[in-house]
Amino acid sequence: MADLITPGYRFATVTSDDHRGLIYIAAFLTFTYSTLTFLTRCAIKWKVFGFDDWATCVAQTTSIIQFALLLVSLTAGLGRNFDLLSNDEYSRMSTTQYSNQIVLYLSLGLSKCAAVMLIQRLFTRDAKKFWLICNIVVALMVVWTLLVVFMVSVGCSPRSTAPPTEAEICPGIFARYQIVAITDALTDIILILVPAYLVWQLQMGTALKMQVIAVFAFRLPLIPLSFLALTSWKRSLHSNNPGVDRTTAILFQQSELCFSLIAGTVPCLKSFIRSFDTGSGVKVGYTSNGYGSSGYNRGLSYRMQSLNTAGSAVRSHNEDEGNVKVSTKPFTSGGHGRARASSISNVTTVEYITPKPKEVDAMSHGSQDELFIRRDVQWEVRSENA
Hints:
Layout: H1 20-44, H2 51-76, H3 87-121, H4 128-151, H5 158-161, H6 173-200, H7 206-216, H8 222-237, H9 242-245, H10 247-263, H11 270-273, E1 313-315, E2 324-335, E3 338-353, E4 376-385
Antiparallel strand pairs: 1-2, 2-3, 3-4
């Protein structure tokens, strides 16, 4: 078998003192997967771009920047034995890797913000409670992103974050990364629990609710990836060959970022979003009470038009504009145990589709494919003529 391996140039050879090849493979694979997923999202939502999509664009852009920094760091000697690097190579490697860590966590945080914005976008703006919860979570993710970026960088030099010896380790850097990993896992748990809570409040079938929750639970593997990166990074700090042993931590970090970007796009698939379309009134519905109020708003009232007692009539307007559909038909009622053929009543069925908000996003205004969980409210009004 050895004779079949022809000698020649190798882009990256994996040896005991050089693991750059492994990082190259992981970097290009994760970059390819996340980019293809992002392009798929753009194709699906091209006409309905919202804040969640723009946040994803920024997250993907920062991911590309960290990918470029990683390649520069690899060229300078990342993944190699530090003893084999010149002072200039080591300085360039540590500086670019230091910058890579900052941009990586920035991209990770932005992907979380985009995930919350998508959850928020699925609910119409009249769901005040849901929107308030999502706004609080978005603010929490923004604060987490900024804090993490500072924690992995402030007070530490590039050399102290990639130290050749234990004596040069930045004081307290491991405790910082522990906090980062724990809070990272907690934010992912929040991103799973929030849509689960919001969806559970809807009048949907249990099977459909579980389907929705399962899609958002796609983020669960991010939790072990975060802790695996932490433990691997800790081992590399106290290793005899920290340059090579840090490879495993970098592989887990790249996998986590890629998976986070993909997890934010999975719920955008059309087959999934269409399950929220209540235009048919089958999968997601709300039933009004006796006073004509339902769901999140109370005390709604509508002026009815005169009924046509001569027969049945249907008045319908554009449902997407939130107008009222009125259907009238004769109704024969009985009273006190005996039929009264002359007593005719008109049955009026009023179906009101909650209108889309007027202040829609500029990029999605006028689109017929806006992605909202809409609310169907139906009243039945009976009037009897004695």
